[in-house]
Protein backbone atom coordinates (compact mmCIF):
# COMPACT_ATOMS: atom_id res chain seq x y z
CA UNK A 1 0.00 0.00 0.00
CA UNK A 2 1.59 3.20 -1.14
CA UNK A 3 1.55 6.29 1.09
CA UNK A 4 -0.52 9.25 -0.01
CA UNK A 5 1.53 12.06 -1.53
CA UNK A 6 2.25 14.97 0.75
CA UNK A 7 0.48 18.07 -0.49
CA UNK A 8 2.31 21.27 0.45
CA UNK A 9 0.26 23.84 2.33
CA UNK A 10 1.57 26.68 0.24
CA UNK A 11 4.26 27.71 -2.23
CA UNK A 12 7.88 27.11 -1.29
CA UNK A 13 9.55 29.91 0.66
CA UNK A 14 11.65 31.06 -2.29
CA UNK A 15 8.48 31.72 -4.35
CA UNK A 16 6.57 33.59 -1.68
CA UNK A 17 6.11 37.31 -2.24
CA UNK A 18 7.67 39.48 0.41
CA UNK A 19 7.15 43.19 0.04
CA UNK A 20 9.92 45.34 1.39
CA UNK A 21 8.83 48.69 2.71
CA UNK A 22 11.46 51.33 2.05
CA UNK A 23 10.73 54.68 3.61
CA UNK A 24 12.93 56.65 1.22
CA UNK A 25 11.32 55.19 -1.89
CA UNK A 26 7.84 55.69 -0.47
CA UNK A 27 8.54 59.34 0.35
CA UNK A 28 9.87 59.96 -3.16
CA UNK A 29 6.71 58.42 -4.61
CA UNK A 30 4.58 60.67 -2.43
CA UNK A 31 6.50 63.72 -3.59
CA UNK A 32 5.92 62.75 -7.21
CA UNK A 33 2.17 62.57 -6.56
CA UNK A 34 1.94 65.78 -4.51
CA UNK A 35 -0.26 67.35 -7.18
CA UNK A 36 -2.72 64.47 -6.83
CA UNK A 37 -2.88 65.09 -3.07
CA UNK A 38 -3.58 68.74 -3.75
CA UNK A 39 -6.30 67.89 -6.28
CA UNK A 40 -7.95 65.40 -3.93
CA UNK A 41 -7.85 67.92 -1.09
CA UNK A 42 -9.41 70.60 -3.27
CA UNK A 43 -12.11 68.19 -4.41
CA UNK A 44 -12.96 67.28 -0.81
CA UNK A 45 -13.23 70.90 0.25
CA UNK A 46 -15.44 71.77 -2.72
CA UNK A 47 -17.70 68.77 -2.08
CA UNK A 48 -17.91 69.49 1.63
CA UNK A 49 -19.12 73.06 1.22
CA UNK A 50 -20.93 72.73 -2.08
CA UNK A 51 -24.34 74.44 -1.91
CA UNK A 52 -23.63 75.47 1.70
CA UNK A 53 -24.72 79.07 2.16
CA UNK A 54 -22.04 79.73 4.78
CA UNK A 55 -19.29 77.84 2.96
CA UNK A 56 -15.93 77.81 4.76
CA UNK A 57 -17.51 79.71 7.64
CA UNK A 58 -18.58 76.30 8.97
CA UNK A 59 -14.93 75.70 9.81
CA UNK A 60 -15.27 78.59 12.26
CA UNK A 61 -18.75 77.79 13.53
CA UNK A 62 -18.04 74.27 14.82
CA UNK A 63 -15.20 75.13 17.24
CA UNK A 64 -17.00 78.33 18.23
CA UNK A 65 -20.14 76.39 19.17
CA UNK A 66 -18.10 73.97 21.28
CA UNK A 67 -16.31 76.92 22.90
CA UNK A 68 -19.63 78.54 23.74
CA UNK A 69 -20.99 75.30 25.24
CA UNK A 70 -17.86 74.71 27.27
CA UNK A 71 -17.84 78.33 28.46
CA UNK A 72 -21.48 78.21 29.56
CA UNK A 73 -21.21 74.87 31.36
CA UNK A 74 -17.66 73.90 32.28
CA UNK A 75 -16.57 77.35 33.42
CA UNK A 76 -19.63 77.59 35.68
CA UNK A 77 -19.91 74.04 36.96
CA UNK A 78 -16.23 73.13 37.26
CA UNK A 79 -13.48 75.25 38.74
CA UNK A 80 -11.11 75.13 35.76
CA UNK A 81 -7.67 76.63 36.32
CA UNK A 82 -6.92 78.67 33.20
CA UNK A 83 -3.77 80.34 34.51
CA UNK A 84 -5.50 83.72 34.58
CA UNK A 85 -6.57 83.63 30.92
CA UNK A 86 -10.20 83.95 29.79
CA UNK A 87 -11.86 80.55 29.66
CA UNK A 88 -13.01 81.09 26.05
CA UNK A 89 -9.38 81.37 24.93
CA UNK A 90 -8.41 78.42 27.10
CA UNK A 91 -11.12 76.21 25.56
CA UNK A 92 -10.57 77.39 21.99
CA UNK A 93 -6.86 76.60 22.18
CA UNK A 94 -7.81 73.07 23.17
CA UNK A 95 -10.51 72.73 20.54
CA UNK A 96 -8.34 73.78 17.59
CA UNK A 97 -5.97 70.78 17.66
CA UNK A 98 -8.71 68.39 18.72
CA UNK A 99 -11.07 69.50 15.92
CA UNK A 100 -8.25 69.04 13.42
CA UNK A 101 -7.50 65.56 14.76
CA UNK A 102 -11.16 64.54 14.87
CA UNK A 103 -11.95 65.75 11.34
CA UNK A 104 -8.76 64.21 9.95
CA UNK A 105 -9.34 60.80 11.52
CA UNK A 106 -13.01 60.76 10.47
CA UNK A 107 -12.12 61.57 6.87
CA UNK A 108 -9.00 59.41 6.66
CA UNK A 109 -10.66 56.30 8.08
CA UNK A 110 -13.14 56.29 5.16
CA UNK A 111 -10.84 57.75 2.51
CA UNK A 112 -9.94 54.45 0.83
CA UNK A 113 -13.43 52.95 1.03
CA UNK A 114 -15.14 56.05 -0.36
CA UNK A 115 -12.59 56.44 -3.20
CA UNK A 116 -12.48 52.82 -4.27
CA UNK A 117 -13.59 53.51 -7.85
CA UNK A 118 -10.83 56.09 -8.31
CA UNK A 119 -8.31 53.98 -6.43
CA UNK A 120 -8.74 51.10 -8.88
CA UNK A 121 -8.20 53.35 -11.90
CA UNK A 122 -5.25 55.49 -10.82
CA UNK A 123 -1.80 54.01 -10.28
CA UNK A 124 -0.56 55.94 -7.26
CA UNK A 125 0.56 55.37 -3.68
CA UNK A 126 -2.61 54.58 -1.76
CA UNK A 127 -1.61 56.81 1.13
CA UNK A 128 -2.42 59.88 -0.95
CA UNK A 129 -6.10 59.37 -0.02
CA UNK A 130 -5.79 59.50 3.80
CA UNK A 131 -3.18 62.25 3.47
CA UNK A 132 -5.58 64.35 1.39
CA UNK A 133 -8.20 63.92 4.13
CA UNK A 134 -5.73 65.22 6.69
CA UNK A 135 -4.81 68.12 4.40
CA UNK A 136 -8.49 69.01 3.96
CA UNK A 137 -8.97 69.12 7.72
CA UNK A 138 -5.83 71.25 7.91
CA UNK A 139 -7.38 73.86 5.62
CA UNK A 140 -10.40 74.05 7.91
CA UNK A 141 -8.12 74.41 10.93
CA UNK A 142 -6.23 77.27 9.32
CA UNK A 143 -9.52 79.06 8.72
CA UNK A 144 -10.56 78.41 12.33
CA UNK A 145 -7.21 79.72 13.58
CA UNK A 146 -8.12 83.16 12.24
CA UNK A 147 -10.79 83.34 14.93
CA UNK A 148 -8.13 82.83 17.59
CA UNK A 149 -6.64 86.22 16.79
CA UNK A 150 -10.07 87.81 17.10
CA UNK A 151 -10.61 86.16 20.49
CA UNK A 152 -7.28 87.52 21.70
CA UNK A 153 -8.28 91.00 20.51
CA UNK A 154 -11.78 90.89 22.04
CA UNK A 155 -10.53 89.60 25.38
CA UNK A 156 -7.64 92.06 25.55
CA UNK A 157 -5.32 89.16 26.31
CA UNK A 158 -2.15 89.07 24.19
CA UNK A 159 -0.21 85.90 23.27
CA UNK A 160 2.92 85.50 25.37
CA UNK A 161 6.47 85.73 24.08
CA UNK A 162 6.96 81.98 24.56
CA UNK A 163 4.61 81.31 21.64
CA UNK A 164 7.65 80.30 19.57
CA UNK A 165 6.97 76.77 20.88
CA UNK A 166 3.79 76.59 18.80
CA UNK A 167 5.34 75.07 15.60
CA UNK A 168 6.88 72.22 17.61
CA UNK A 169 3.58 71.41 19.30
CA UNK A 170 1.61 71.67 16.05
CA UNK A 171 4.10 69.31 14.39
CA UNK A 172 3.46 66.70 17.09
CA UNK A 173 -0.29 66.93 16.50
CA UNK A 174 0.15 66.57 12.73
CA UNK A 175 2.50 63.58 12.99
CA UNK A 176 0.20 61.77 15.43
CA UNK A 177 -2.85 62.54 13.29
CA UNK A 178 -1.25 61.24 10.10
CA UNK A 179 -0.15 58.08 11.90
CA UNK A 180 -3.64 57.33 13.23
CA UNK A 181 -5.20 58.18 9.87
CA UNK A 182 -2.92 55.79 7.97
CA UNK A 183 -3.65 52.89 10.31
CA UNK A 184 -7.41 53.38 10.41
CA UNK A 185 -7.76 53.94 6.66
CA UNK A 186 -6.09 50.63 5.82
CA UNK A 187 -7.74 48.61 8.59
CA UNK A 188 -11.22 49.93 7.69
CA UNK A 189 -10.96 48.32 4.26
CA UNK A 190 -10.58 44.89 5.84
CA UNK A 191 -12.79 45.45 8.89
CA UNK A 192 -15.73 47.77 8.20
CA UNK A 193 -16.72 47.78 11.88
CA UNK A 194 -13.96 50.35 12.36
CA UNK A 195 -16.10 52.91 10.51
CA UNK A 196 -18.69 52.60 13.30
CA UNK A 197 -16.15 52.55 16.12
CA UNK A 198 -14.28 55.70 15.07
CA UNK A 199 -17.11 58.23 15.77
CA UNK A 200 -17.71 56.68 19.19
CA UNK A 201 -14.01 56.76 19.99
CA UNK A 202 -13.74 60.41 18.97
CA UNK A 203 -16.67 61.39 21.18
CA UNK A 204 -15.12 59.61 24.14
CA UNK A 205 -11.72 61.10 23.29
CA UNK A 206 -13.10 64.64 23.34
CA UNK A 207 -13.83 64.32 27.04
CA UNK A 208 -10.89 62.04 27.86
CA UNK A 209 -8.50 64.63 26.39
CA UNK A 210 -7.93 67.84 28.38
CA UNK A 211 -9.82 70.06 25.94
CA UNK A 212 -12.45 71.61 28.23
CA UNK A 213 -10.20 71.30 31.28
CA UNK A 214 -6.49 71.33 32.05
CA UNK A 215 -4.16 68.38 32.25
CA UNK A 216 -3.74 69.17 35.95
CA UNK A 217 -7.04 67.35 36.55
CA UNK A 218 -5.23 64.11 35.73
CA UNK A 219 -2.96 62.87 38.57
CA UNK A 220 0.62 63.82 37.79
CA UNK A 221 1.86 60.22 37.98
CA UNK A 222 -0.32 59.40 34.96
CA UNK A 223 0.80 62.32 32.80
CA UNK A 224 3.38 60.16 31.05
CA UNK A 225 0.64 57.71 30.09
CA UNK A 226 -1.27 60.58 28.46
CA UNK A 227 1.87 61.62 26.59
CA UNK A 228 2.48 58.13 25.20
CA UNK A 229 -1.11 57.08 24.45
CA UNK A 230 -2.55 60.46 23.48
CA UNK A 231 0.18 62.92 22.40
CA UNK A 232 -2.47 65.55 21.68
CA UNK A 233 -2.95 66.04 25.44
CA UNK A 234 0.57 67.38 26.17
CA UNK A 235 0.44 69.35 22.91
CA UNK A 236 -2.73 71.14 24.03
CA UNK A 237 -1.24 71.70 27.47
CA UNK A 238 1.91 73.09 25.88
CA UNK A 239 -0.06 75.47 23.65
CA UNK A 240 -1.86 76.87 26.68
CA UNK A 241 1.31 77.20 28.72
CA UNK A 242 3.35 78.97 26.03
CA UNK A 243 0.56 81.17 24.61
CA UNK A 244 -1.46 82.00 27.72
CA UNK A 245 0.86 81.56 30.71
CA UNK A 246 4.14 82.65 29.18
CA UNK A 247 6.08 79.56 30.26
CA UNK A 248 7.66 76.73 28.32
CA UNK A 249 5.73 73.48 27.78
CA UNK A 250 6.43 70.53 30.03
CA UNK A 251 9.50 69.37 28.13
CA UNK A 252 9.43 65.83 29.47
CA UNK A 253 5.86 65.30 28.32
CA UNK A 254 6.52 66.99 24.97
CA UNK A 255 9.54 64.75 24.36
CA UNK A 256 7.50 61.65 25.19
CA UNK A 257 4.67 62.84 22.93
CA UNK A 258 7.08 63.49 20.06
CA UNK A 259 8.74 60.09 20.45
CA UNK A 260 5.38 58.33 20.66
CA UNK A 261 4.04 60.14 17.58
CA UNK A 262 7.12 59.38 15.48
CA UNK A 263 7.11 55.74 16.56
CA UNK A 264 3.44 55.37 15.73
CA UNK A 265 3.99 57.05 12.35
CA UNK A 266 6.78 54.59 11.47
CA UNK A 267 4.72 51.60 12.60
CA UNK A 268 1.52 52.91 11.03
CA UNK A 269 3.21 53.55 7.70
CA UNK A 270 4.58 50.02 7.61
CA UNK A 271 1.17 48.59 8.51
CA UNK A 272 -0.40 50.63 5.73
CA UNK A 273 2.14 49.51 3.12
CA UNK A 274 1.78 45.88 4.19
CA UNK A 275 -2.00 46.02 3.80
CA UNK A 276 -1.88 48.17 0.67
CA UNK A 277 -1.39 45.31 -1.79
CA UNK A 278 -4.71 43.67 -0.94
CA UNK A 279 -6.85 46.80 -0.61
CA UNK A 280 -8.34 46.65 -4.10
CA UNK A 281 -9.06 42.91 -3.88
CA UNK A 282 -10.76 43.07 -0.47
CA UNK A 283 -12.84 46.13 -1.30
Please describe what this structure looks like.
The chain is mainly α and 283 residues long. The protein has one domain (37-282). It has 13 helices and no strands. The chain has helices spanning 23-32, 34-49, 58-77, 87-109, 111-114, 116-119, 128-155, 166-190, 193-208, 223-229, 232-245, 251-276, 279-282. α8 runs parallel beside α12 (251-276). The longest helix has 28 residues, at 128-155. The N and C termini lie far apart (48 Å).
What's the short story on this structure?
With 283 residues, the protein is an all-alpha fold. The protein has helices spanning 23-32, 34-49, 58-77, 87-109, 111-114, 116-119, 128-155, 166-190, 193-208, 223-229, 232-245, 251-276, 279-282.
Count of discrete structural domains: 1
Unreliable stretches, pLDDT < 50, 5 or more residues? none
Proportion of strand residues = under 5%
Shape: globular
Structural class: mainly alpha
Report the biggest beta sheet as strand number plus sense, adding barrel if it closes.
Answer: none
Distance between the termini: 48 Å
* Structure annotation, total helices: 13
**Helical amount:** 55-70%
| Computed Rg | 22 Å
Output mean pLDDT: 85
What string, H for helix and E for strand, traces the elements in order?
A: HHHHHHHHHHHHH
Number of strands: 0
